[in-house]
Design a protein that fits this description.
The complex is a heterodimer. By secondary structure, chain A is α+β, with helices and mostly antiparallel strands. Chain A has helices at residues 2-60, 79-84, 102-118, 162-217, 221-252, 262-277, 297-313, 348-351, 371-381, and strands spanning 64-69, 74-77, 120-129, 135-147, 150-160, 257-261, 282-286, 292-296, 323-330, 334-341, 385-391, 395-403. Chain A has nine helices and twelve strands. In chain A, the strands form three sheets. In chain A, strands 2-1-5-4-3 form a five-stranded antiparallel beta sheet, with helices on both faces. Chain A has a five-stranded mixed beta sheet with strand order 7-9-10-12-11, covered by helices on one side. Chain A has a two-stranded antiparallel ribbon with strand order 6-8. In chain A, helix 4 packs antiparallel against helix 5 and helix 7 packs antiparallel against helix 9. Chain B is an alpha/beta fold. Chain B contains six helices and five strands; from the N terminus they run βαβαβααβαβα. Chain B has a five-stranded parallel beta sheet. The chains are: A alpha+beta, B alpha/beta. The A-B interface holds A 190-191, 193-194, 197-199, 201-202, 204-206, 208-209, 212, 242, 245, 298 and B 13, 15-16, 19, 22-23, 26, 63, 93-98, 116-117, 119.
Amino acid sequence: MIEYDNREELLERALDREKNSRKQAEAILEAKASELYNSKKELELLFLELSSKHDNVLESLNDAYMLLDLKGNIISINTAGIDLFDINDGKINFNILELLEHQDSNLLQNRLENLLEEGSLKNKEIAIITRANKRKIISYNSSVVYEGEIPVGFQGIGRDITLQKQHEEMLLESNLELKKINSELDTFVYRVSHDLRTPLLSMLGVIGLLLDNMDESGFSEINRTYIDLIFQSANRLDITIQEILHYSRNSRLELEITPIDIQILVNNIFKDLEYVNKNRLKFETNFNNIQIINGDKNRIDTILKNIISNAVKYHRVDIEDAFVKFDITEKDKEYTITIIDNGAGISKNHIDKIFNMFYRGSTSSVGTGLGLFIVKEMVNKLNGEIEVISKANVGSTFIVTIPKLL
Amino acid sequence: MKKKIKFLLIDDDHVFNFLHLKYIEKIDNEHEVISFESPLRAFLYLNSLDVNSLPDIIFLDINMPEQDGFEFLDQLIKERQEIIDKLNVFIVTSSLNPVEFEKSKKYEVIKGYYNKPINIEKLNTTINWFYDKK
């Protein structure tokens, strides 16, 4: 019996153990299930929170947001969108194509088809007629909404750019107007300079004839001096007119960049000056194998002409070896042009003022006071720099640095 | 002996026509010089000439009342196409407008562009150019 009792006892104990472990398993299962349930709840909450946040984001947007079905019917739209389309009656279930003028409606239809193929469109513009019958210009981005891989609708973000467009148009208009005024002014300046120069040049021509005839008929020396003085004054007036023209052109006209053969340009300047120079000065050029540079030909020509002709004008007559040297070198990003002479030089009390408008170093100086001022203005226009080192009775060095252009 | 040159001067400013005449005479007073202050009358004159008596060298101003130098040439090209190849036009102007200089490059009939006034050097260059061309 003992054996029997023992067996029963053993069975009972085994049963108890099984019960306990099942209970334990159930408890674990229950705990797991509630854990799962909680995390699902959390996910749902998170999702809700997220989507409400999303709505808030859409609502807080200053830009209009809307969701359309594939035919263009509005499914949802934010407040900014309602404002954009002037939807005053709250009825938002209409087709987006209704807001467009006929030709634009075709355009949008095409764009929707295009959108389906492309997946998204960016920075498009379209004109709409709002519910309140206002014409607005909208800039928008849009994309296709997919469920899995199947397109189910469109979404878009748009903003009213009507004012901006109007401003742009006004700006374009006034820009055109300005260009017109500028070109009229240009023509005017040329006309005036032409009409002032014409009689002056005929005077110069007649004086030239007179001087030629004098050589033949042997006029008195004093008369020759008088005629020379008239010639000099007329010539100076002509130079002033030309310089005013240069100045006015420089301040108004944009840079005109072309390839320039700097060697030809500089050699021509020296050639033109040979007439005034009469071989008194030695002209030297050192191009360091630089030939074609990109730049504004008229301005570079005027800059170099002014500096070089100054060197000729103010050379020292009391020395034998008077010279003007032109030198150009290049670095990565710039050209450096150096013009050296051993002429009259500029004394310390003048050197700060030589680039000022109408500044003339002395009453005896033959210039107009515009030459170096124009040089400085032009160098500025070219984004370059100019520097001068000079000593009275020793000579001057002008260093012009201009950036390389492509 | 070199052929004498026939010049036609067209400038509304008679002082320039006179000056240019004097300079031409200085070089050789056997050259023939005809001048007009009106481009319209110059056109009528050219129109009246037969092909063998056309001027050899024409000095033409640009800015003139009635018709500017380019309009004058346009009318010639339009109405006297057959003589245009036989003409040698030199622009003589006191304008410093690069637009006009660029425009003159488009005319085949324009062989040179001078700033006023013409001096002996420019005149000699022009005459030598003409003889070399022959």
